[in-house]
Design goal:
Rossmann fold; nine-stranded mixed β-sheet; two-stranded antiparallel ribbon; single chain; globular; 267 residues; disordered C terminus; 7 helices; alpha/beta
């Protein structure tokens, strides 16, 4: 596919893997799913496997500590030391800019996962509600009834009865089931409705709730370092960094501003 370029970092063969699954968290509402996946990657010290550069990602460069990089998706790999279940993690700097682009990158990811024998994809995201509980609920939808029953009975998740999940978080597991019979699960942590309307909202409680659920479900060797005080401190630090960034870019004016009606909303 001419629109997609890849940069490999590891050499892995399908034969080396032990019952591999995939956990995905793409940018979305308050980046709740992405933050959870980023934390899993850090806690498990997953290794970068592949970078995906796609010409439908936002046309600009990312600056981090003065270093430039292109917007990209990343696939990382964790080798289970107990040799029970290896994990691929997928995240990205941005969603594709167009519906066609979202389909293209989702199809590319699905084919990759099929090539490596993935049997289960778990996507993490957010579920906006009018008023979030102090301990956010987790909502479940899946490509098969058995997975829904498993999460509702064993982990007290709530079914999503109706709705649309926009973006790769919903499309990857759906296409994987349609094309390759790979089972898909989407877990959505509830967050306050204001996260849907305000891009500056950070809901770490929702992300940490997803993190804890995944750790329990997969019996992952991770320590829970997220006390209420720690979450509050992290939220405060993120808000300070965001305000600093806003102050730095205030002198610059975009050529064209996006109206409210043009905003893309991802779950």
């Amino acid at each position: 596919m001419d629109s997609i370029r890849t940069i490999p970092f590891l050499n892995l063969s399908k034969e080396e893997l032990k019952n591999p699954i995939c956990i995905q968290g793409m940018p979305g509402i308050a980046d709740i799913g992405k933050f959870a996946v980023d934390q899993l990657i850090g806690l498990l010290k997953a290794k970068k496997f592949l970078e995906i550069i796609f010409n439908d990602y936002p046309a600009g460069a990312i600056i981090d500590n003065s270093i430039l990089s292109t917007p990209k998706a990343e696939i990382l790999y964790w080798k289970d030391p107990k040799e029970k279940q290896d994990i691929f993690f997928i995240t990205a700097d941005a969603q594709a800019m167009s519906p066609k682009g979202i389909y293209e990158i989702s199809d590319f990811i699905v084919n990759f996962l099929h090539e490596y024998g993935i049997k289960l994809i778990i996507s993490l995201g957010a579920f906006p509600v009018k008023k979030s509980n102090s301990i956010p609920n987790v909502f479940i939808t899946a490509t098969c009834e058995n997975r829904i029953n498993e999460f509702t009975t064993k982990y007290d998740c709530t079914r999503v009865k109706k709705g649309v999940i926009i973006g790769a978080n919903g499309l990857v597991p759906t296409l994987a089931q349609a094309f390759h019979k790979i089972e898909g699960v989407v877990l959505l942590a509830e967050t306050d409705n204001s996260a849907l309307m305000n891009d500056d909202i950070t809901d770490l409680n929702a992300s940490v709730n997803l993190l804890r659920l995944i750790g329990k479900y997969l019996s992952l060797p991770i320590l829970d370092k997220f006390s209420p005080q720690k979450i509050q401190e992290m939220t405060k630090n993120l808000e300070i960094k965001r305000k600093m960034l806003e102050e730095e870019i205030e002198p610059f004016h975009p050529i064209a501003e996006t109206s409210e009606g043009q905003k893309s909303l991802y779950i």
